[in-house]
Amino acid sequence: MRGWFEVTELATGIAGSERLGRIYYKPGGQRVLVSVHIEQDEKQQRHHIERLRAF
After folding, report:
1. What is the rounded end-to-end Cα distance, in angstroms, of the chain?
2. Sign of the alpha-carbon torsion through 10, 30, 27, 48
3. How far apart are CA 40 and CA 51, in angstroms?
């Protein structure tokens, strides 16, 4: 993902998903785009990443 950075394995506080939290961010000038995501499965995560690429 060009320009996007990922912070992985964030504690979500949700039982069974403790290490599946992700924060994606993309600096751009004087603003930063941020997306907070809880991974459900690999297919769903790939779909989320494809949506981020559209920005």
Report:
1. 10
2. positive
3. 16
Report whether pLDDT(46) > 90.
Answer: no
On whether the pTM is more than 0.70, the answer is: yes
Contact 37, 21 (CB under 8 A): yes
CA atoms within 13 A of residue 25's CA, in its CB half-sphere: 8
Dump pLDDT digits (tens) for 1-31.
688 998 887 777 877 777 778 889 999 899 9
